[in-house]
Design goal:
Strand content: under 5%
Mean pLDDT: 89
Pfam families: FA_hydroxylase (PF04116)
Number of helices: 14
Subcellular location: Membrane
GO biological process, one term: lipid biosynthetic process
Order of helices and strands: HHHHHHHHHHHHHH
Organism: Serpula lacrymans var. lacrymans (strain S7.3) (Dry rot fungus)
Largest sheet: none
Radius of gyration: 23 Å
Helix content: 55-70%
Keywords: Membrane, Transmembrane, Transmembrane helix
Structural class: mainly alpha
Amino acid sequence: MSFNATAATMHSAAAQQLYPNLDFSSLNWLEQLWVSWYLWIDNPIIATGLASFLLHEIVYFGRSIPWIIIDAIPFFQKWKLQPNKIPTPQEQWQCTKQVLFSHFTIELPAIWLFHPLAESLGMSTYQVPFPSWQTMLPQIAIFFVFEDMFHYFAHQALHTGVLYKHIHKIHHKYSAPFGLAAEYAHPAEVFILGTGTIAGPLLYCYFTRNLHIFTVYLWITLRLFQAIDAHSGYDFPWSLQHILPFWSGAEHHDFHHMAFTNNFSTSFRWCDRIFGTDDKYREYRKRIAASKAAMKNKSKDEQEAAERELIAEIEAEGIRAEAIAEGSAPKTVKVQ
């Protein structure tokens, strides 16, 4: 629906119901698009539900595509955290099917409840104008902190007994994760960990009655970027964790998949440091640094062989830890 068409329909019944006395020309282009969407759909519940689902699918798969391309280009393997484990097209397709299954069985049915729930808590949805950046930035920061803490404790719980064996084990299929695998998980896990993403905004709205769904969409976009990048398997010199030392990033989360234990948080390193669940990770980083220093004058092949040996040792420890967590017999081989 074009801006001109929207402006022409501002006197329609739907426009008068949603946007009484709105001066369409006073809106910026994004706000005009927002109004156009809600007037075109002509049903706020459907418009919000459809927009929420499309946002998730477009951002998730759109952000994953660059990592698929990077995995296919040998030049980037020097920054790959586990360079001998590049996902195959077959693995990526299998992962995509599981992700889509979770999206359509968990997210799609539930997302139509979001608009009524959001409005019952006082969240703005179709309304314009949008809040200012000065309002949105601290709200998004709060959501990041809340989700990180929620995820830390929920993720630890998923590493125990029945919860691991029947739910979280699916996500740990890949000891060397890749972007698409960020939401490769059991539908129950998608629901459990997804609660941390959406509960923060809902609780904030409940207590403040001051939140716009546009802010929530920005938060979800940033959260998806964080999750996908953390599973990318690459640590570039320009990666965010080298700029913000408290940011977790791929280098932090890749160890979790490789070693099974440690590093349960998502965006930040604080909870793992506070509760001591990064001890093995920090020891591993020291061993990597010591190995690189000792192999400084060795050939590239010798350096890579030493790194692979250390990775294999850590992964073997992870196999034992996984077997203990699910109460199964010790394993000797773990396939990526």
